[in-house]
Amino acid sequence: MRISMATSAGKAGQANEDFAGAVPGAAVLLDGAGIPGTESTCCHGVAWYTHRLGGALLGRLSRDDGRDLAAILATSIGEIAADHRGTCDITNPSSPQATVLMVRAYRGRLDYLLLADSFLVLDQVSGGPQVITDEREVAARRICSAPLAGIPEGTLEYDRIRDSCVEALRARRNQPGGYWIAKDDPHAAEEAVTGSRPLHDLDSVALLSNGASRIVSPYGLTDWPGVLELLRANGPADVIRRVRQAEARTSGGPDARVPDDATVVHCTLPRSEAGGITAPPDQDARPGLAPLHPRR
Question: What global pTM score does this model have?
Answer without folding.
Answer: 0.86
